[in-house]
Structures are given as C-alpha cells and as structure tokens.
Amino acid sequence: MSVVIGNEEYDWEMFENNCEYKNGYTSTDPQIRWFWEVFHELSLEDKKKFLLFLTGSDRVPIQGMRDIKVSILNKYNKIFM
C-alpha cells in the first residue's frame, strides 16, 4: 500500500518562472532559453520524471508548483576560475 501525497495540477510555466539563476546566468541567456524550450517540448511523463529527479516526487506539493524552488547555476563563471 502506498500513500499518495500532492496533486497532479501541473503548472509548468509557474515552474519555469520560479526558477532562480545564479553565478552569472539570467533567464535571457541562450543556454537557459534552450533548456526551457526543450523542457516544454517534453511529454507529460518525461516532465514528471524530471520533477521526480529534482524533488523525489512526481507530484505537485499541496501548496502548488510555486513551492518548488529550482536553481540553475553557471558552474564555469569566472568567479571559480
């Protein structure tokens, strides 16, 4: 028996809008735009797998997608060189 927590009201635009960019990345960088372009082309099942990879669950938290915080950072920023 398993207990299901969360719901299936996915708002992928909110997921993207809540993403933070660090170490020199911004939402307008080509790499970021390419990432989101590919992400939005994924099937629902693949998006759910990505959510599972990030959060440990393929479901939306009770409070909604706004509670999922994702950061994308530039590993190769000059700060680290």
Q: What's the short version?
A:
By secondary structure, the chain is mostly helical. The protein contains 3 helices and 2 strands.
Low-confidence stretches: none
The major sheet is characterized as: 2 strands, parallel
Neighbour order of strands in the largest sheet: 1-2
State the CATH class. Answer: Alpha Beta
Q: Cα-atom Rg, whole angstroms?
A: 14 Å
Large-scale geometry: globular
Helix percent reads: 25-40%
Tell me the total number of β-strands. Answer: 2
CATH superfamily: Hect, E3 ligase catalytic domain
Main structural class: mainly alpha
Describe this structure in words.
Its EC number is 2.3.2.26. Keywords: Transferase, Ubl conjugation pathway. One of its GO terms (molecular function) is ubiquitin protein ligase activity. Residues 1-81 form the HECT domain. This is HECT-type E3 ubiquitin transferase. The protein is mainly α and 81 residues long. The protein has one domain: Hect, E3 ligase catalytic fold, CATH 3.30.2410.10. Helix content is 37%, strand content 7%. It has 3 helices and 2 strands; from the N terminus they run αβααβ. It has helices spanning 12-17, 30-41, 44-55, and strands at 20-22, 71-73. A two-stranded parallel ribbon has the order 1-2. It is globular. It starts with 11 loop residues before the first helix and ends in an 8-residue tail after the last strand. The relative contact order is 0.28.
